[in-house]
Amino acid sequence: MVAPQIFQLSVARAFDGLSPHQKLYAHYMAKAAWSGSRIIFRQVSPEANGIFDFIIALYHSCDGDWEHLASRANLDFQDVQLFLDYAAAFLSNMGNYYGSGDQKFIPDISKAKLARLATCTSPNAAARWDQIQDAMFQIPPLSLGLPAQLTQSTYYPGNEGPSFHEDTALVAEVMNELSVLPENTRLEKRVLSSEEEVFDILQASVREGESVCHTANSSTIRSGKTVRLVNGDHKDELARINAYLEKAFDYVSNSPQHDMIRKLQDSFLTGNLETYKDSQRIWVNDKEPPVETVMGFIEPYRDPLGIRSEFEGIVGIPDPDETRVLKQLSNVAERFVCRLPWVDGESGSKGAFEKEVFEAPDFSSVQSLAYCSSIVFPGINLPNYNDIRQETGYKNIIFSNRMVAESHRARGLHMVDESEQATFKKHRSHAYYIWVVLHEILGHGTGRFLSESEPGNFNFNPDNPPLNPITGEPIKTWYRPGQTWTGVFRDLSTTVDECRAELVGAYLIDDQEILNLFGYTQQGEVKPDDIIYNMYLQLGTDGLRGLENYDPATKKWGQAHSRAHYAILRHLLRDTKDLYTIFCDPQAGKLTVKVDRTRVIQQGKPSLGRMLLKLHVYRCTADSNGCREFYEDLSTVDDDALGWRNIIIAKKDPPVAFSHANTHLDGDTVNIREYEPTAKGIIQSWAERGIDLDVA
Length: 696
Known about the structure:
This protein is an alpha+beta fold. The protein folds into four domains: 1-36 and 234-318 and 361-408 and 661-696, Fructose-1,6-Bisphosphatase, Chain A, domain 1 (2-Layer Sandwich), CATH 3.30.540.30; 40-144; 155-233, 2-Layer Sandwich (Alpha-Beta Plaits); 411-650, no CATH class. It is 45% helix and 16% strand. The protein contains 25 helices and 22 strands. α7 (111-119) runs antiparallel to α8 (123-137), α16 packs across α20 and α22 (600-620) packs antiparallel against α23 (624-634). The longest helix has 23 residues, at 421-443. The protein is globular, with a radius of gyration of 25 Å. The chain starts with a strand and ends in a 9-residue tail after the last helix. Keywords: Aminopeptidase, Cytoplasm, Hydrolase, Metal-binding, Metalloprotease, Protease, Zinc.
């Protein structure tokens, strides 16, 4: 594995600006967030919790003096550094599969040398090593995915076999009929005999219990298949989280935080996601809090079916200066909605595929104090429940200390012509920031689902349905009662949603009003034309870089955004004439993408608009079949692309890792400690995070 590029998520200055009361709230919410770590490890792989215990046991065995440990094991420190790089990557990705790409990674230190490290220190470390050594180095599985020979998923323990889709469809039908939402569940299959199988819906909750799922329209047992609801998955971690939430409760800043915490606790106690959704409705209406938080089973990226979600815990402190600009954009965003391809801005109506009124979201820039997740995103748009987003609203959050890292990363620089590399690097972070902002507020914040919420109750006229702008004919599909975006589009839902959001950001980035809002004028050092050109060059480099996360062995994509970027580039290559040129020299190992600057607005923007319109209408009308045909064709990797991939993999950018801060109590005073951006610093921060200690 390649050693990660490590950045410090500096937050001390922002934290020091909080009041003592707010610091205590941030402290306990951060402790609650990090207490979900073992849930994520468990969701990644069967061995991940054991590997974490092994890393921490080794740290404690030498009190973080890794040079001394190398000497005791009679190893060169260079060998130990290989293990430290692995440990830093493991901790930053919350498991032994990359958060971006889902590929498994193993240490570069040999198994024999790592065994010497493990056995020369403490009985605890040696015992942990015995438990995980084989799984740590075992290949396959190569990546996360549907349970199979080359891939694995702990969302579906025991579900290997040709009947996987049939079995999961049966369980999905039962869950839908009983109104059991899937986000905080896993599905375990147990074969009792050749004629009897049991499917346990493992629901995350503190309370334990089990019951056979009785339904009206389907028998409890079908052909020897019994479905049960089993509560208590992740119970220890959720109990710990609730205990910290109880401590944070004493330091809330307002009544919405009071109500949100109580709803969160109740949801984690019972597993009831309707209660969790209530907490999110309250959260959306908690405007401009002094400490921002996100907690729960949030993102479905790593579920191969795209419906079950990874736990996530985030605590951030608003950055007033950057938030001011974002709020200015939020307050005028209605104007930019009217410039999207499916909206007729001159008619006075936004049409069938857009909400008539765009509710300006709470849009803030924060510095993350805690970000417990397999990916630290530059920005987020939540909640992920579309009924809440359309009826109540949503929040946008940009992580400013995460964004800082972007200005220091190469990110495919070798694919830019040498004459342009310096300029590309200088302008890239400027364009990327605006792209992320537009992605969050207008990419994830626009659109209207055409639906039948209950039999006979439509949000459009079924006797005179709106015309589909793709076909020119009346729409033929919509969301039926009980159907959701993720349930209908399943494995495509996350990547199509991200692709659509990326397209919105790229489509609008040439808007002069938006660029002026962010300070880019003809008088500035970085001019509007520089931002626009850099955006299209990024679409080229990011489209090619996306191939890093395609696995030729399984023919599967490992990351939603990567597949989206590749699909966008393929569409631009097909749909425009000479806008992009890709030069590939396999012998020299050189791959270069060029953009004709004179064709960007003339050809590039209309092409993005055509792709965006299709994905948007497919999404709004629940046309999963049309979407699948269009999107799978665009994201198919042909022989030319495989040749590009070989060069990209050979020059792959190092994976990114982050060093997070910790807070701790000194009496009633909360102090903060930041760690150096090194592998040692990351390991120390986790060792001092107290994941295994009692709540205090």
